[in-house]
Amino acid sequence: MKIKRFVGRNMKEAIQKAKQELGPDALIISTRKIKSPSVFGGTQTEITVAQDSLTESPPPNLEENCLTKNNNIYHQADNKPSEITSYSTTDMKKDIIFIKQLLFELIQEKEFLFIPQLKKDFFKLYLYLIEKGVDEAVAIKLLKTLVEEKSKFSKITFNPENFLIDFLGNNIKITNGIERYLNKYKIFALIGPTGVGKTTTIAKLAARYSIESGAKVGLITLDTYRIAAVEQLKIYAGIMGLDLEIIHTHDEWENAIKKFCNMDIIFVDTAGHSQKNEEYIFNLKTFFRNSKSVHISLLISATSDKNNIRDIINSFGILLPENIIFTKIDEVCNLGSILNISHWSNIPISYLTNGQNVPDDIIEAEKTELAKMILL
Ligand SMILES: Nc1nc2c(ncn2[C@@H]2O[C@H](COP(=O)(O)OP(=O)(O)O)[C@@H](O)[C@H]2O)c(=O)[nH]1
Ligand SMILES: [Mg+2]
User: Fold this and answer.
1) Do both 216 and 69 map to the same domain?
2) 195 CB under 6 A from ligand 1?
3) 180-221 pLDDT per residue, tens
4) Which of 91, 291, 338, 362 has the fewest C-beta atoms lying within 10 Å of its C-beta?
């Protein structure tokens, strides 16, 4: 019997490595988490695998050979001398949790494989979407719809590429910029986590409306927690020759709105906070509640991982944002999150920002373009 250890970022990767080297019949005899050698820390998964076809000796009894009487597990890697590692009940519980997780992941994949039509026609596309950051459940749901819609087309007129772009485009919720809200609102507030690009995006939008469209634009900032944050917007306001009001209280807010009554558009910058800071989000909600005329855009960075994106949508959702501005798309290769966002919320994407340059690096959301970006 050959016993070998394999290390991966997670259980799945470790198993893949084992299968690659020892084939599908290799038997996992233990798993454990180990410290990652990466400078960023974290953990890796190590599995110990046995394969009996590589040796003439008869296959050992797993219980006898792997577990000693005092419940230790026997590791023999690369034919080096064996070592005895303590294997406690806690370790065993951890292993069971791991195995449950693994089974769960496998079942999720299987759901896809059990839909024959999907497996046959769209398996590659499924894998591609996953690689692009589309959530597995979202990808499966999309592809199920895709199968139905594809069947409506005749073979002669069917163009797979255009079909796919149209299909994905129709699954993305967008609104082109904020134009269509201008007859309803005058005050546009940007909210979202710290560092997502709120102030920079305000500068881009303010420039677009004041310089390009000649509109009268006023700026308000509620972000008075950090001096640097106020200074940042002051600099932009100075360059563009725009009035800026710095607000600490609700009275100051009322006065600023009165002062800006002749403005065509007012952009409001807010302090960034984690989506986990419920108190802050609640306070912001109370602040804006008295100002029903405020249009709210939620900023989400393309660099956030998909679980974070889901959290951000849920937590900031209580402020009832009407748009999402998807920032920093220049920093990622995978834009599958756009499909996740459209699946997890009804809020349309209005803009995407693609760089630090003010005012150039901002584009209005457009379905076909977004679909192409995702598929690139
Ligand atoms: N790469 C990239 N950086 C951006 C983008 N938008 C903003 N940033 C940068 O992200 C950082 C934080 O932006 P800021 O506007 O201060 O974020 P805020 O905390 O949400 O107001 C700054 O360094 C910006 O230049 C973008 O679209 N792409
Ligand atoms: Mg800011």
Assistant:
1) no
2) yes
3) 888 889 999 999 999 999 999 999 999 999 988 899 999 999
4) 291
Structure tokens at 207: 């420039």
* Domain annotation covers residue 169: no
Residue 119 structure tokens = 């497996």
Hey, which of 43-52, 114-123, 159-168, 169-178 has the most confident mean pLDDT? Answer: 169-178
Q: What is the pLDDT of residues 92-123, one digit of tens each?
A: 888 888 887 777 666 666 666 656 666 666 77
Cα(219) to centroid(ligand 2), Å: 13
Same-domain check for residues 264 and 315? yes
Locate all alpha helices (DSSP H) within the chain, ordered by sequence: 11-22, 62-66, 89-113, 116-131, 136-150, 160-170, 198-207, 227-240, 250-259, 278-289, 306-316, 337-344, 367-375
Look up the domain containing 339 and give its range.
179-375
Kindly state whether residues 60 and 186 are assigned to the same domain.
Answer: no
The answer to the question of residue 174 being in a domain is no
Total number of domains in the chain: 3
Q: Based on the domain organization, do 18 and 123 belong to the same domain? A: no
Q: Among 220, 352, 356, 362, which is best to mutate for testing ligand 1, by the most ligand atoms less than 8 A from CB? A: 356
Is 355 touching ligand 1 by the criterion CB < 6 Å? Answer: yes
200 CA distance to ligand 1 middle (Å): 6
pLDDT band at 159 (very low <50, low <70, confident <90, very high): low
Q: Enter the pTM of the model.
A: 0.71
Measured in angstroms, how far is the CA atom of residue 327 from the centroid of ligand 1? Answer: 8
User: Residues 27, 49: contact at Cβ < 8 Å?
Assistant: yes
357 Cβ closer than 6 Å to some ligand 1 atom: no
Q: Kindly give the pairing relationship between strand 323-327 and strand 349-353.
A: parallel
For residue 351, is it within any domain?
Answer: yes
